[in-house]
Amino acid sequence: MRAFELTAPTTVDDALASSGTYLAGGTTLVDLMKLDVLTPRHVLDINGLPLRGIDTADGLRIGALERLADIAAHPGVYPAISRALQLSASQQLRTMASIGGNLMQRTRCTYFRDVAMPCNRREPGTGCPAIPGAHRMHAILGTSDACVATHPSDVAVALVALDAEIRLAGPDGERTVELARFYRTPGDTPHVEHDLRAGELITEVRVPRLDWAANSTYVKVRDRQSYEFALCSAAVAVDVRDGIVADARVAAGGVATVPWRLRAVEAALRGKPATEDSFAEAASRAVDGASPLPQNGFKLSLLPRTIVRALLEVTEGSR
């Protein structure tokens, strides 16, 4: 790790007036600094900022510095979000990590994290060794010739499914951005991962009220039961009335370069019986436009099966 200056602003205005890299839980930033993937000269410890609190009075509002463990344990949090948080990391990490930091975490691609290797995300124009190399864990959706790395956040998948927004504060004032539009697929600029502008800071996560989101879940498939990132995951919420799907929300993780909203699957579910056959037919739309590589083609069948599993789980009492 290289030498850096550390300061601790106590107000949002002070943080925005300073130039540096924000540090919250540090569960991603510190690791990348140790590897020399990130080498900030000035680090701003923002843990003293008033960006905490969970409000469920009308929808859900979460301060950006709330810890994952506390959010998961809150009784007013939708099940898909709580479950995604519980499955995201060990208890120790969930106690340290903040929701804002989790949404901003960098890919776990081993080539990105190895400074001896080229990587378009780390050094634009150097190439993507994952494409001809080891890519079993990598994306089949939202990829490009420049990058096939998956987005690592579990809770971002659940939040995207539930139409979450994030509140941003910056030198030019405040703005609200739909989380699904915040993340960017790699295209020709894989180093541009999101729509965070220079000097901006996530201050709050907002999820609109959706009463039937109580019927939601998050299913994560991985190589081992814990301490592992998703090979494939699905966040679903379903409104079933008289055995018919009235509405649905579906998003996937572990298979795309960003948290991947599956609107075609949602549309195929609406108006259909809440049965395994209907779920399987709708879930087949999940891989529309997929571009698998030799080692990750199994995700073409794993993703629909994961969605069906999640749908069956969340509708068990209404079928």
Automatic annotation (TrEMBL):
Keywords: Oxidoreductase. This is FAD-binding molybdopterin dehydrogenase. GO terms for molecular function: FAD binding; oxidoreductase activity. InterPro entries: CO_DH_flav_C (IPR005107), CO_DH_flav_C_dom_sf (IPR036683), Diverse_Substr_Oxidored (IPR051312), FAD-bd_PCMH (IPR016166), FAD-bd_PCMH-like_sf (IPR036318), FAD-bd_PCMH_sub1 (IPR016167), FAD-bd_PCMH_sub2 (IPR016169), Mopterin_DH_FAD-bd (IPR002346). It holds the Pfam family CO_deh_flav_C. Coiled coil: none annotated.
